[in-house]
Amino acid sequence: MASPNTANPSTGAATIVAAVWLVLAQALGFAVGGFTAGRLRLNLGMVPPAETRFRDGANGFMVWAVGAVAVAGTLAVVSALTAANAVWTGESLVGQSRLGYLVDSLTRVSQQGKGVGSIDADHGQIVRVLENAVRERQLSTADRTYLATLVATQTGVSQDDAERRVDDTVNRAHESIRQVADAMRKACAHVALLTFVSMLLGAVAATLGGILGGELRDESLFVRGSASRR
Questions:
Q1: Element (H, E) at 110
Q2: Whole-angstrom distance, CA of residue 84 vs CA of residue 77
Q3: CA distance 184 to 118
Q4: What residues contact 13, with CB distance under 8 A and at least 6 apart?
């Protein structure tokens, strides 16, 4: 569905397909596990049928419980890594795809006059200063003054206009990071909700699977016992 080599569906359609697949896969997997546990449980025939069904269902539910622990552990690790790398990913994204454009807009020559010299030699240094500002969550006074002086010299704008350009560029870089982090948080929330729904349905499926497995086990034993009596 998400192959880059073919026509891609919309984000909403891909999300719906992924959600349906997650729920069905969890429910089917736990149902099979619960059925197997119920079918393999030893029944001595010394308890009432209602108690037998309860025990079979409990065995199926235990399959879900073990799976839930494994899923929870996996999600905990993934969530921790996502939270730890969310800001880093935003910084990386800004550094790779946005800082070049931001530097270009920062050093854009004013219409009132031509800049002095070439900005190419200072482009890399400006990028590094902005990357440090993004990483440290703030632009130091020395770096702000330096960038404003450099922009004013290269573009021909006033010092005040250059300082406003610098502040606006840093704010835009921080805003880009915030948007990336918010998108990742929303994605994590959606995954958590879908996982909860799928696990809830998985618990029901595992319990019912255990009961069904037990009923088929007892039916097989009854048929076998009837045949042996004949």
A1: none
A2: 11
A3: 39
A4: 1
Q: Look up the pTM and report it.
A: 0.56
Please give the Cα distance from 8 to 39 (Å, whole number): 43
**Residue 222: which residues within 8 A CB-CB, separation 6 or more?**
none
Q: Which amino acid is at 161?
A: D
Question: What does the alpha-carbon distance between residue 73 and residue 147 come to, in Å, rounded to a whole number?
Answer: 47
Please classify residue 224 by burial: count the beta carbons closer than 10 Å to its beta carbon, then call 0-12 exposed, 13-18 middle and 19+ buried.
Answer: exposed
Q: How far apart are CA 180 and CA 82, in angstroms?
A: 12
Per residue in 109-161, pLDDT (tens digit) is 544 444 444 455 567 777 777 777 777 777 888 888 888 888 787 777 888 88
Widest Cα–Cα separation across the chain: 109
CA atoms within 13 A on the CB side of 174: 13
